[in-house]
Amino acid sequence: MASCWGLPELLCEFPSLSNKSLRTMRTTIDGGFRDLVRSWSDVIDQATWPLQVFLNTLEDIFTQTPWFIVMAVMLGIVYAASRSWKTVLGAFAGLMFIGIFDLWEDTMTTLAMVTVATLIAIILGLPLGIMMARSDRFKSVLSPVLDVMQTMPSFVYLIPVVVIFGIGKVPGVIAVVIYAVPPMIRLTNLGIRLVDQEVIEAADAFGSDSRQKLWGVQLPLALPTIMTGVNQTIMMALAMVVVASMVGVGGLGKNVLQAINNQFFTIGFLNGFALVAIAIIFDRTSQAFGKRLQKHTETGHD
Amino acid sequence: MTDTRSGIEIRNLYKIFGQNPAKYVDRVKAGMTKEELNDKYNHVLGLQNINLDLAPGEISVIMGLSGSGKSTLIRHINGLIMPTAGEILYEGQDVVSMNPTELRHFRRLKTAMVFQKFGLLPHRTVLDNTCYGLDIQGLPRSKSEPIARRWIDRVGLSGFEDNFPNQLSGGMQQRVGLARALANDADILLMDEAFSALDPLIRMDMQKVLLDLQDELKKTIVFITHDLDEALRLGDSIAILRDGALEQVGTGQDIVLRPANDYIAEFVREVNRGRVIHADRLAQPLPPGAPLPELQLPGRLVLELVAREMTKANATQATILDRNGTPAGVIDIASILGAMVTPADAPAL
Predict the structure, then answer these.
(1) Which of A21, A55, A288, B324 could serve as a FRET partner for B232 with CA atoms 20 to 30 Å apart?
(2) How many CB pairs under 8 A join A and B?
C-alpha cells in the first residue's frame, strides 16, 4: 500500500476494477473463447488439414532426401538467384558447418517450416499490400493492425493460436506467419506507392486499365522493394521459429529451447549459429536476386 | 488549308483545386478573384473560363510561366484531370462526359502524350517502350514491333532498340518518348514541356525533328512550353496563359507585332523579331507605274532571311511575291531594319 503523502485513497491508488469483476471478465472471455473453439473444432481441423499435409510433405522431402542432393539443389538455387560464386561458396561453408555438427536433420525441419511460412506470408502479404497501396482507407485500417502484430510480444499471440489450433506444427506455422507477414504487406504497399508518378501518368495517358497498370508498371517497378519485403519476412520467420518451438515445432528451435531449459551452453550456441548460417544464406541470396532485378538501373548514364 | 478532321474545342473550362470545388465555381464565374478564393476559401483556381480552338493538323502552342496552369490545361484534353466546369469537344464528343471505358478507348486510339521528364518505363527496353501504347491497345507483338522499329528509326535511334532508358542521354530518351507517342498513330499528340528538360542545342535539334515529322504527318499537336522562342518556332498558333486565364491567342507574328497587353508586350520584348515577322507583313503596295525591283522573294520568308538574300544580291529593295507567285508589294532594307529592332514605343530596358 502506497502511503501517498496522506492523500485520500482515490487519489492514491488508481481506481481500478475490483478483483472480482476482473476475474469474472477473464473467466467469461476465456471460457467463451474455449467453448467457441470447441464447437468449431471440426471445421478448424478441416481448414488446417491442407496446411498440415503441405508441411509434412515438404518436411519429408527435406529430411528424407539424401543430404548431398539437398545441398546440391540448394547451392544451385543460390547460384541461380545470385549468379555469384562467392555467395555459393559461403552457402557451402555454412551448410558444411551445419552437417559436421550433426544439425542437418533439425536444420531441414526448420527449413521446411520457414519455407512454408514464407510462402504463406507472400501469398497473403502481396495482395494485402496491393490493396493497401490502392486505398488510403484500407491503409488506415490495416496500419494499426500491423502495428499490433509487430509490437505484441510473440508469446502473447501464441496463447490464442494454441487454444484454437492446439499444439504442433500447424499452430507453429500460423504463429510464424502472423509474426513475419507485416513487412511483406508494408513493403509491397511502399514499393507501389513509391513508383514514379510520371510513369504512372504515362501509363494512364496511353489508356492502361488498372490491371495493365498493376502488372505492367507498378509491380515490376516495385519489385526491388517487394523483394526487400520477402527478405525481411524470411528473416523474421527464422527468428520466430525458435519461439514457435514452445508450441511443439521441432527443428533447431526445439534444441535451443532445450538448451535454455538445461543450460547447455554449447548446444545452444551451435544451434543458434546454424540458424544464423541459414539466415545469412537466405539473406545474401534474396538480396542478390533483388539487386539483379534492378539490372536496368545499374548502367546509369552520366 | 482545308483539313476536314476535327480539331479540339475547349469551351468555358474552369478548374478549381480543393476540397469542394463545385461549390465555388459559380462564384468564380460571377467574378471572384483567384486571390479571394485562395485567401477566404482555401481553394486554388487552376483555370478560368478557357475558350480555345485547337486547329486540326497544326501545332498549337500553349505558353505560360510556371504556375500559369498550362500543364493542367493539357491534361484536361485527355482527361487525366477533369474540369470543375466546361467541356472539351473532339469529333463532336465531350471528353469530360466520357465514362471510364470510353475515356480509356479515347486515350488509346485518339491521343498520345510526350512528357517533360519522358515518363519512360525504366524496366522496358527502347523497343518495348516504343511498343507500349500498342501493347495497351492489345496489338500482338508481331504487328507492333515492325511499327515500333520504324519509328525508332525515324527518330534516329536505330541500334539502341535493346538499350534501357537509363543507358541513354536525355535527348535520346525523349526521342524514345516521341517514338512511343508516334507509334500509337493517334490523331492528337500532346506534348507537355517535352523539350524543356533538354540542353539548348539538343532542344533545337528536337524541335527540328518535330517540325520535319509534322510536315509529313499533319497531326493535331498541342505543345506546352514556357519558352517563347520555342513557342514562336513551333507554333502555328500560340495561346498565352497567365494565372489560369488566356491572355492572348494568335499567330506568333500577331503576338509579337500586336501584344494584347503590357504583360505580353513585356514577354515579347526580347524576341528576335527578324525570325518571327514575315516579309508580306511589311511589304508596301506596288507603286503605280514605277519599275519593280529585280530581286523577287516569297512573302512567307522571315525578315532575317529576306535581309540575307538582299545583302547577298546587293539590293536595297525587293519585290515580295504572294502565295501564287505574283508580285504583292515592295520591301526596302530600311523598313526591314526598323521592324527588326524593338519598336521605340516599347518600355525602356
Answers:
(1) B324
(2) 74
* Digit-coded pLDDT (tens) for A174-193: 999 999 999 999 999 999 99
pLDDT of residue A302: 42
3-state per-residue secondary structure call for B260-292: CCHHHHHHHCCCCHHHCCEHHHHCECCCCCCCC
B122: CATH: 3.40.50.300
The reply to whether residue B111 touches residue A205, judged by beta carbons under 8 angstroms, is: yes
Pull the grid cell for residue B39. Answer: 485567401
Output the nine-digit C-alpha cell for A10.
482515490
Domain count, chain B: 2
The span from the CA of B79 to the CA of B75, in Å, is: 6
Chain B CB contacts of A199 under 8 Å are 119-122
CATH of domain A53-293: 1.10.3720.10
Interchain contact, A199 vs B121, CB within 8 Å: yes
Beta bridge partners, B50, equal B13
Counts for chain A of helices (H) and strands (E), in that order: 15, 0
The 10s digit of each residue's pLDDT in A54-69 is 999 999 999 999 999 9
Whether residue B119 lies within 8 A of chain A, CB to CB, comes out as yes
- Contact status, residue B293 vs residue B318, Cβ threshold 8 Å: yes
On whether the CB atoms of residues B112 and A195 are closer than 8 A, the answer is no
